[in-house]
């Protein structure tokens, strides 16, 4: 069994970390989890918090938010909406965000200052709003609960493939985009992609029929 892990951490715009480590601890959507060499393969969503990786006795920390974590063949791939080392954190922006949150909680207007928006925050907001809209549609009865969950699963998988391809392009020195070469996927991934796209098309047709018939 290998005694180390290969860790890659990337955002949609850059490769942040590519190194061998002894342990990784990351915030999942259901809580923190740890990965050691020999861990069983899995795929999970990345939450918001502090990601820690250990090399020998030295610990390194990053602030991460949103995305996916994939563990396979003693390799940990973190595809994050945002990932910053401590020295990269924009303290001014963080303080302004805290002040805006306090004003909103107190019911006061946020003021006229323009709110900073970057690609990572926009991507994170898109993913969150998409899943929230699906949940709202299920609660309103516009979509069945099973249909909403199937669409959410399809959305997460398509997002995972897109982010992984962006990581590959960044590692190769290229520019990331939203294309995923079908021929570069394994047979299992191709089948899962077809299933995800089929789910989207079938639910689109079902929704259109329901809209036209009023059912």
Total beta strand runs: 8
Give the oligomeric state: single chain
Residues in helix, %? 40-55%
One letter per element, helices H and strands E, the order comes to EEEEEEEEHHHH
Measured distance between first and last alpha carbons = 57 Å
Uncertain segments: 112-119
Give me the Rg, rounded.
20 Å
Please count the helical segments.
Answer: 4
**Largest sheet, strands/sense/barrel:** 8 strands, mixed
Structure description:
The chain has two domains: 5-88, F0F1 ATP synthase delta/epsilon subunit, N-terminal (ATP Synthase, domain 1), CATH 2.60.15.10; 119-213, no CATH class. It is built from four helices and eight strands; from the N terminus they run E-E-E-E-E-E-E-E-H-H-H-H. The protein has helices at residues 91-105, 119-140, 145-171, 187-213, and strands spanning 5-10, 15-21, 23-28, 31-35, 42-45, 48-55, 58-72, 75-84. Strands 1, 2, 3, 4, 5, 6, 7 and 8 form an eight-stranded mixed sheet that branches. A hairpin with a 4-residue loop joins strand 1 (5-10) and strand 2 (15-21). The N and C termini lie far apart (57 Å). Residues 112-119 have low confidence and may be disordered.
